[in-house]
Amino acid sequence: MRGIHLTDGDIVTSSPRRPARPGKTPLHEVGEHPDYRFTLANERTFLAWVRTALALMAAGVAVVQFVPGPTAIRHGLGFVLISLGGALSAVSYTHWERNERAMRLGEQLPYSPMPRLVAAMLALGALAALVLTVVDLVET
Amino acid sequence: MLTGRLLPHRRRKEPAVDVGLQAERTAMAWQRTALGVGGVSALLLHLAAGNLPVAVPGLAGLSAALLLLVLSEQRYVRIVNKVGAGEPPPAPGLVRLIAAGAVVLAVSALALLLLTDA
């Protein structure tokens, strides 16, 4: 007999067949607690991303203050770095949330484009700062 | 009773105290992040150059960093106790908070740079 299932998952009744829109249910109601080590590892990864974002902000301020060259370019570069830092902070939260959800459901962790994106932006930013510095050296 | 109070974890079931030092690593990650928040805030404070209204984000950030250090320590103790008792670790409400705080810090940095015209 398939009567009433008294499991946690069925309390939400609507449709256990549809795992789409997992964003609707609050995190702590999804699936079950994973191994606490995974939860903590996810948390540390999130924190590492936040620190990266903070470093980007600091770098942005430093670029505006210390890199030589035309004001517009310095400001542009600094603003890009700081905005990237702000965006990264927000994205790192959603990333943490998605990872946590996947862990609770026992699914594969979602792919993250963040490392590639941040590495590319940093490389471009460093190149720009380098060019500005070299141009300044050559001119003086 | 006294030893029980001094060493609360010893009375839990055997592999109780922060096996693999997971909780400690996590607490240190929180502390480094707090230091990062403090560093960026100090930078903003430096940008403000003594102008009090402009110094508000930096001051707020520094206070937040201090608060975060305290909270991370409390969280560490709670995690060790919970996990030691075989329960899941406490919900990380701080995660959302620090992400939002970092966004605010970035926006303040942008605003400050525009204002101070460094």
TrEMBL record, chain A:
Chain coiled-coil ranges: none
Localization per record: Cell membrane
TM segment ranges: 46-67, 73-96, 117-138
Keyword Aminoacyl-tRNA synthetase: no
Membrane topology (UniProt): Multi-pass membrane protein
Pfam families per the UniProt record, alphabetical: DUF202
Name this protein carries in UniProt: DUF202 domain-containing protein
Organism: Rhodococcus opacus M213
